[in-house]
Amino acid sequence: MGSSPGTSRSKRAHFLRAALPCFALTVLGSAPVAAQSLTPDLFSPNRGGFASPDTLPTRRTAGVPQAPSDALPALPDPNSDFRKRQQAPARPWQNPTNQNATSQVPTYGLPAANGASSSGYDSLNRKRQQPKFYPGQPKPKRPAGPGSRAPTTTPPPSTLGSPKIAPPPSASANKAPVPAAMAGTVPGQPLRRRLKADDDAFGAVGDYAGSFLIKGGLELSTGYDTNPARLNKPVGSPAYVVAPDLLVASDWERHALVADLRGSFSGYTNNMPATIDGFASPSPVEVDRPDFNGHVDGRLDVNRDLKLTTQLRLRLATDNPGSPNVQAGLQKYPVYAAYGTTVGFDQSFNRFQVAAGATVDRTAYTNSKLTDGATFSNDDRDFNQYGGVGRFSYDLKPGLKPFVEIQGDTRVHDRAADRNGYFRDSDGGYAKVGTSFEFSRILTGEVSVGYSARNYVDPRLSQLAGFLTSGSLIWNASGLTTVKFATDTQIAETTVPGSSGVLVHTYAAEVDHDFRRWLTAVGKFTYGTYDYQGQNRNDKTYSFESNLIYKLNRNIWIKGTLRHDILDSNQPGSSSQATVVMVGVRLQN
């Protein structure tokens, strides 16, 4: 069905109204008519086709790779061979499609982000591959951020040039070389806990039993003693010494328990004479003597400032040869045992420290065996001692700690009167002031001075009092030489009739020198005074000793000893001298 005549006339009217203005503009325009040339950019769907690549807001950065089809054309180099070939006229045999070469868009350089490092910012959020390390290999530190200090780089040691000068012998003397595996300097070695510095390269290593470190040793010596009984007229004898020792120490983070046990037995093959000039000898016939000194110390850490302390101690020994306490006509020395305990605490108030403890001790003697086979009781020499000790110290500054110490005790004998009818129960004590010090580990120790006194129940026995000195000093003169000083004062019981007691002062000096790590020389000098108050008897002792120790390894030492003892007494016939030569071996673990 066709359209109506009215509709056709309406369409022709609209067409004429739109065509007449266009025709008028064409006739009036002065510019020549030119058609727009078609370029690939007009139909390119890529970004940047109608805008400059430099002003494109969505342009890619160099860190983001882009597809070759999405890359923007770069300006060609006018001097390049490709530019010259592009300006030359196209030849049919060079362009089989008979298309102008200028219509092809060339690309130059490498794609964006080609060869980018594995570090830095990645806008594509790609997962980076983590570096793999060997087991135990130290991981590199993270790079420092803004504001960090500039790292101080140390130039690597140069392998060229003159070699370094060797260090002096004192820098490496008495120091065991540490293997690289033990020092932890092997590349790729797992980290290990650092061991404590070993001051003695030939010292006993010990064994662990649970959390306890156990060290044991045994010394076997033999030699000759020119006067084992310390008689005015010397009588010599071959001698041997067996000396075991044991050290057990806990390895706990808190609390502590230490046991130190040391003993010896001195034996002689010859017997001493039973009589001298028709009288009973002042020394026993058998002069073998045991000696043991041991103590067990414990500490309980309640908190940082409060500690509970305790000690168990035992001493087994005999009277010293040449002492007036030794009975005449003995077959052998009677042995005494002195044992006891101390229970106390140690409280710190910032720099101020208070330590106190209660002590209980007992001394008991065995019966004396005479040369005629009879026995003699020594119950009058047995006694109990009850006392206490307190110490107040203040940490004045690092390495200097002055203190004040006060002690008091009471001695009660098993028998009120001794063999001579004297009542020897007594009360006594001491007070002293001193300081402990440590100056750069070169000079360390403790020194104190004070006064000691003891009053007896028997009015016939005068007060036993005297000046008191005690302390120890260690001076590390060099890496090879160590000097030690020690002094001590004691009030000892006696059986001398009319004498209230013995005031004993002892002073000792020792020098240790290492010729090599395995060869050590030790020199000792000891001076002592024995004041028997009430009897005007004064004894002086001198001892010169030298030792040479050859250390084969940590388990075997060879030791030589030369000692000369002098006893100088103001009583006629009581002085003596003796020389001892011993050679032995020490076994330890």
UniProtKB/TrEMBL annotation:
Polar residues: which segments have biased composition?
A: 94-106
Top-rank taxon of the source lineage equals Bacteria
Where are stretches of biased composition, namely Low complexity?
65-78, 171-181
Q: Which UniProt keywords apply?
A: Signal
**Alphabetical list of Pfam families matching this protein:** BBP2_2
Hey, what's the signal peptide range on this chain?
1-35
Is Phosphoprotein among the key words of this record? no
The record's region (Disordered) falls at 38-191
Q: What is this protein called?
A: Outer membrane beta-barrel protein
User: Which species does the entry assign this protein to?
Assistant: Bradyrhizobium canariense
